[in-house]
TrEMBL record:
Keywords: NAD, Oxidoreductase. One of its GO terms (molecular function) is nucleotide binding. InterPro entries: Gfo/Idh/MocA-like_OxRdtase_N, Gfo/Idh/MocA_oxidrdct_glycsds, GFO_IDH_MocA-like_dom, NAD(P)-bd_dom_sf. It comes from Leucobacter triazinivorans. Pfam families: GFO_IDH_MocA, GFO_IDH_MocA_C3. SUPFAM superfamilies: Glyceraldehyde-3-phosphate dehydrogenase-like, C-terminal domain (SSF55347), NAD(P)-binding Rossmann-fold domains (SSF51735). Residues 12-138 form the Gfo/Idh/MocA-like oxidoreductase N-terminal domain. This is Gfo/Idh/MocA family oxidoreductase. Residues 391-418 are annotated as: Disordered. Residues 147-300 form the GFO/IDH/MocA-like oxidoreductase domain. The keyword S-adenosyl-L-methionine does not apply. Signal peptide: none annotated.
């Protein structure tokens, strides 16, 4: 890192894996100085790694990295790289995350950080030992409407929270001809929709309401086999035509998961209960990711498919009883950084710019508003408890995790951790 004469700080960025998410991280870094000029942070795209020659070339020619390599270790060994984005497939996350920590690189890593709680904790231990800053790709918590909802709950505007209903419903695997990518192979992905989508929902609940303490879960695999897709080709949206000469292989993890949950007594929504569902094979919803929150003084719901809207209801007998659509506006979260007024919408990519901002601010020792490795541990712990529950048909507990950004109750009332 280098502080320039004009007071700006240049941060050397490394990227591991130049797929869709790696491209998204790169655009987020590049847009940071336009969206947040007052931060005086200039990311410098220094070094990218991808074993596919075409993607390595794209990193330089299209994304603007100064150089590219086939081996991620070259990025970690580069003295001009200060922070690293880890956007590789799930089965490489723990290996690369631990290596990044040992190399002394602050890292921004996509979820799930590991194939279950054990691998995620190993990355957390390595990060703690190295003293590096971490950020996790929990995109949806950064939506201005969600940030506003979190604030309303903490301030008691909805009263005592009684229950929550959440869903992460996607259709990217709803076609039975959908290719069997690494996401369907337990040895590569770990669990299925629990890690891929339910982890996002668990984070959304814990960020807005507080830690989940108990779960009871069930899972199912709707399509038990799919046409095989060679590693490194296509995406998890790929569909194999009926006349294609391909081999069918078994799906090794779950397509659908549901949980009953009870929140911790330390949560802002202490002892509230709820139901959470996730599916990658839903027909109809494209990316219906959201939560409904019910309180004694009002209720609210938010859905990513309409991410620039928050629906609010006042309490019983009030003139505001019944849902009102509130459009995201410059008074909500970081909305004003992207758009001048309500009705002109933000997009998915903008959430990653916010995520990059929070990460680099923490790296520079400023505000620590970033999702961190302990948030990933907490989400993985809940998901692993859900796996145990589904297998044993039992209630399972999830112990508190220190150092998260979950919404918790302080000594003198609700507080927002982080």
């Amino acid at each position: 890192m280098q502080t320039n004469e004009d007071g700006t700080t240049t941060i050397g960025v490394g990227l591991i894996s130049v797929g869709w998410m790696g491209q998204l991280h790169s655009r987020a870094y590049a847009n940071l100085r336009y969206v947040y000029p007052d931060l005086k942070i200039t990311p410098r795209l220094a070094h990218a790694a991808d074993p596919a020659p075409a993607r390595a070339e794209e990193a330089v020619e299209v994304l603007g990295y100064e150089r590219a390599s086939a081996d991620y270790r070259e990025v970690l060994n580069d003295p001009e790289v200060d922070v690293v984005s880890i956007c590789a497939p799930n089965f490489l996350h723990a290996e690369i995350g631990i290596a990044a920590a040992k190399a002394g690189k602050h890292f921004w890593i996509e979820k799930p950080v590991g194939r279950g709680e054990h691998e995620t904790r190993a990355v957390a231990d390595a990060a703690a030992e190295a003293g590096v800053v971490t950020a996790i790709g929990f995109n949806y918590r950064h939506a201005p409407a969600v940030e506003h909802l979190r604030k309303l709950i903490a301030e008691g505007e909805l009263g005592r929270i009684t229950n929550v209903r959440g869903q992460m419903f996607a259709d990217y695997s709803s076609d039975p001809r959908g290719a069997l990518s690494w996401r369907f192979v337990r040895g590569l992905a770990g669990n299925g929709v629990l890690g891929d989508l339910m982890g996002h929902l668990v984070d959304l609940v814990q960020y807005t309401l507080g830690p989940i303490a108990e779960v009871s879960a069930l899972t199912s695999t709707v399509y038990t086999e799919r046409p095989e897709l060679p590693m490194g080709t296509g995406t998890h949206f790929a569909v194999i035509e009926d006349d294609a000469d391909v081999e069918m292989k078994p799906v090794e993890n779950e397509d659908y998961a549901a949980m009953l949950v009870r929140l911790s007594g330390d949560a802002v929504a202490a002892d509230a209960v709820g139901t959470l569902e996730a599916s990658r094979v839903a027909v109809g919803p494209r990316a219906s990711y959201g939560i409904e929150i019910y309180g004694t003084e009002g209720s609210a719901y938010w859905d990513f498919e309409r991410m620039n809207e928050l629906h609010l209801s006042g309490g019983l007998g009030t003139e505001n009883q019944g849902y009102t659509r509130v459009m995201a506006h410059p008074g909500m979260g970081d909305f004003g950084r992207f758009q001048p007024g309500a009705g002109t919408s933000m997009g998915y990519d903008d959430l990653k710019v916010i995520e990059a901002r929070k990460f680099l601010q923490a790296v520079l020792g400023r505000e620590h508003l970033n999702s961190n490795i302990q948030d990933a541990v907490s989400a993985a712990q809940v998901v692993t408890a859900a796996e145990r529950s589904a297998e044993a048909r039992s209630w399972e507990r999830s112990a508190p995790v220190a150092g998260t950004t979950a919404a918790v109750r302080g000594e003198h009332g609700p507080t927002l951790a982080g």
